[in-house]
Design brief:
27% of the residues are buried. The chain has one domain. Helix 5 packs antiparallel against helix 6. It has six helices and no strands. By secondary structure, the protein is mainly alpha-helical. It is globular.
Length: 162
């Protein structure tokens, strides 16, 4: 028990970070593509366990995307026109990620027949296309975000999240 307590005491406190966005944003960046991987495996292997885990993973990725987009996304800097344009593209693809992920979650629920009273059969390619689009859009969002951070050297001042 002491080992666990020591481990948690060595972790950095959230107040040390200028913004929580980089911490939260990696949830959708990893979970959405992983759900695509799981979905393909669930189709190939025809395993019900993968279907449930796929939906849970995609919902957690959606939750992370919502947090990263609306809760911990700083927009309070004065930026040049070029940097503002890249931020707008970053936001545009973040919103596309949300839309594709929401539609992907709905299509997965229908596809996997979690709701028994809906008589619509969704073929596997509809969730596959939506999750693939979500994976691509979250990747493009990350590319624009990394450009802002590493190419245009956007740094945020200490925020009041503690």
């Amino acid at each position: 028990m002491q080992l666990l307590s020591d481990f948690f005491q060595t972790l950095p406190h959230f107040c040390l970070f200028t913004t929580l966005h980089p911490l939260i944003v990696h949830l959708p960046v990893t979970l959405i593509p992983f759900s695509l991987f799981l979905f393909i495996f669930s189709i190939l292997l025809k395993k019900h366990d993968f279907k449930i885990i796929t939906n849970i993973t995609l919902v957690l990725g959606l939750f992370g995307a919502i947090l990263a987009t609306f809760m911990v996304h700083p927009h309070d800097l004065v930026l040049s026109d070029k940097t503002e344009e890249i931020l707008d593209m970053h936001d545009y693809f973040a919103y596309l990620t949300l839309i594709f992920t929401i539609l992907g979650c709905i299509s997965l629920i229908i596809h996997f027949k979690f709701i028994k009273f809906i008589r619509i059969r969704v073929k596997f390619y509809i969730p596959l296309i939506l999750i693939t689009l979500s994976t691509l859009s979250v990747g493009i969002t990350g590319h624009y975000g990394a450009s802002l951070s590493h190419v245009y050297d956007i740094k945020y001042e200490k925020t009041d999240h503690c």
